[in-house]
Amino acid sequence: MKSYNRSLVIMAGMLILTLIINGCEKQGVEQKVNKQIRLLKHDYYKVSNSAAFALGKIGPQTKEVVPALIQALKDDFGPRSAAATALGEIGPEATEAVSALVEALEDYDSEVGQRAAKALKKIKGEF
C-alpha cells in the first residue's frame, strides 16, 4: 500500500509540474509565479521542492522570482538545495543571488553546498 501511495504522490507531483511549466492559459505569468512562491513555504518538501524547480524553469519573468528563491535558500526548513538548483537554472540573470549562494557553500547539508557551487558556475557562465 505504501508503494501505491508513493506512486500517487509522484504522479501528482509530475502532473503539477507539467501544468506549471505548460501553464493554464487562463492564468498570467504573475499569478503562476505568485502561486509557486507561496508553495515554496509548503510543509511537504516535495511540494516546496517542485515549486522551486518550477520557478527555476519560469526564470526571472517577474522581479519576485530570484528574491523568493534567495529566501528559500536561507530558510532552514525550506527547499534549500532545490532553490540553489533553480537559481543556477536562471543563470546570469540571478546575479543578485551570488552572495547567498556563496554563504550556502558552507551549509551544514553538503548537498546544498554542492548545488550552490554548480549554481554559481552557471550564473558566472562557466558551466
Provide an overview of this structure.
- Helix content is 69%, strand content 0%.
- The chain is built from seven helices and no strands.
- The protein has one domain (2-123): Leucine-rich Repeat Variant (Alpha Horseshoe).
What descriptive keywords fit this protein?
single chain, mainly alpha, Leucine-rich Repeat Variant
Rg over CA atoms, rounded to whole Å, is 15 Å
Q: Write down the CATH class.
A: Mainly Alpha
Largest sheet: none
In the CATH hierarchy, the architecture is Alpha Horseshoe
State the end-to-end distance. Answer: 42 Å
CATH superfamily: Leucine-rich Repeat Variant
Topology:
Elements: H1 2-22, H2 29-39, H3 45-58, H4 65-74, H5 80-90, H6 98-104, H7 110-123
Helix pairs in contact: 1-3, 2-3, 3-5, 4-5, 5-7, 6-7
